[in-house]
Amino acid sequence: MRPGNTILRINGITKRFGGLVAVDNLSFEVAEHEVVGLIGPNGSGKTTMLNMISGAFKPSGGMIDLKGVTISSFSAQKIARKGIGRTFQLVRLLPTLSVLENVIAGAVFGHRRIWGAAVQHHAQKMLERVGLENMAFAPISSLTYIDQKRLELARVLAGDPEILLLDEWLAGLNPSELETGIKLIQDLRSEGRTIILVEHVMDAIRSVCDRCVVMASGQKIAEGIPSEVLSNPVVISAYLGDEDA
Amino acid sequence: MNSKGWSDLWILGLLLLSALAPLILNAYWLSVAVTMMMFIALSTSWALFSGPTHYISLATGAFYGVGGYLVGTGMSDFNLSFWLMAAISPIVATILAALIGLATLRLSGVYFVIFTLGLAEMIRNLVSWIQNNFLGSRGLYVLTDFDEADIYWMLLVITSCIYLLGWVVNRSRLGFALKIIGNDEMVARHVGINTAWSKVLLFMTTGFFAALVGAVIAPRYTYIEPNQVFSPQLSFLVVIMALLGGASRLWGPIVGVIPFTLIWEFVSAEAPNYTYLFLGIVFLLIVYVLPQGFVGRFEQLAKRLKEGGNY
Lengths: 245, 311
Hints:
The structure holds two protein chains of two kinds.
Chain A: E1 6-17, E2 20-31, E3 35-39, H1 46-54, E4 61-66, E5 69-70, H2 76-82, E6 84-86, H3 99-104, H4 117-130, H5 145-158, E7 163-167, H6 175-190, E8 194-198, H7 202-208, E9 211-216, E10 219-224, H8 226-231, H9 233-240
Parallel strand pairs in A: 3-8, 3-9, 6-7, 7-8
Antiparallel strand pairs in A: 1-2, 1-4, 4-5, 9-10
Chain B: H1 4-7, H2 10-17, H3 21-24, H4 27-53, H5 60-77, H6 82-103, H7 110-134, E1 140-141, H8 148-170, H9 173-183, H10 185-190, H11 195-221, E2 223-224, H12 226-229, H13 232-245, H14 252-270, H15 275-288, H16 293-309
Antiparallel strand pairs in B: 1-2
Helix pairs in contact in B: 2-8, 4-8, 4-9, 4-11, 4-13, 4-14, 5-6, 5-7, 5-11, 6-11, 8-11, 13-14, 13-15
């Protein structure tokens, strides 16, 4: 689907932890139906940026607007209700609940608020969506790593988010799992979902992202379509160091 | 939310049946039954909040004390009726619980435990100080026409209300939200749960019921002083009994309270110096053998039997 109007606007966002500036005056925009990759070397502030969009952290300065409404002062639960859903860098599931209940959790309190038989049915559909339909009543402890990641994604999708934040969703997968994972993100993309993903897997970035924002030391050093950005000398030196280093 | 929900209602049936107890039991056993019913009410309402969220509250004694003390001071110092004070005290405790809840929102784990314990002690000392300096240090008399059977029946009604409420909450969105909070508060916020409000609401409920129990049981003691009704030991007993039974199920605390109170009564009568030894042993038992309480063991056993049957 073609990118539409701007849905999310990041405007001069800064985050300080004591003396450390993790994100430094960062600005970019995301259009509807667009898949934007947030990339950069370790410690460049990508996850911190994602945490500010989802409301886990409050920015020290700057503004984040969702469809013209400033959300950067909102709590995480309010942002979730506005339609921003996220996965976590280290998968976070609800171990004492069943697989199905883990998905239901995403559809009761947030952007989508359903309950009773409707939510059971909806959650089952989400499990089918990510390929876990046969595991609905399995204990969480029996899931493989990719299945845990799928389950977390199903929970987020259950809330029918307008913007989906994926924090290194493909990290730690083996080659065959990776293929499944990339396919799943491509499917979401062709559904027309707006996605911001923090990712290190370059194959995934090339094949799913419309655009990339490259960060280094908290600042934006490049922005554009993946093939151009990834061959940009500034980006290469940020990842690999200078030629003469 | 599933079929499990309905089966919890059988406890309510048993409770209603136990209304016959005062007609059968002699005076000694009736007084044991009153103690038992009091702890069932306190432990079950404690578990409504602490069971799903895993926030261990040691403030039960404070709320219970508010109930008992307000009935005492209202009747003794201001000549108000028992019923009026029994109606006011849970409201006061609910407001107190809301304030404590709002103050402790950012605390978790052991900090929350210590804070609630410290707070209960502070309230006890504050009330003693007010009583001694402004209301005269004379004792508070709670003189009513109630006998043990009346108190038993009132406690039974309160317990039944707690069960019914717990059953409704467990099947509601609020109950589900609390389970998610207990699993991972970060996830809870990110799926859109107002975690602060959910926690405070349930904490207020436990405060309400603890004060109501404290108010209703006050006539049993006739003579009340702050140091006695704001008992920190009570807070610990409630936690131990609830954990012994298992706080993850609505009927969990009840299976902890019954054996515990029976043995506690026996030890207090036969070897009063060893009550704390008994308390310590039960604590160790919970930590090493019954981390999920009797409920956890039952369910483990049931699961094993079920799986065994498949072969």
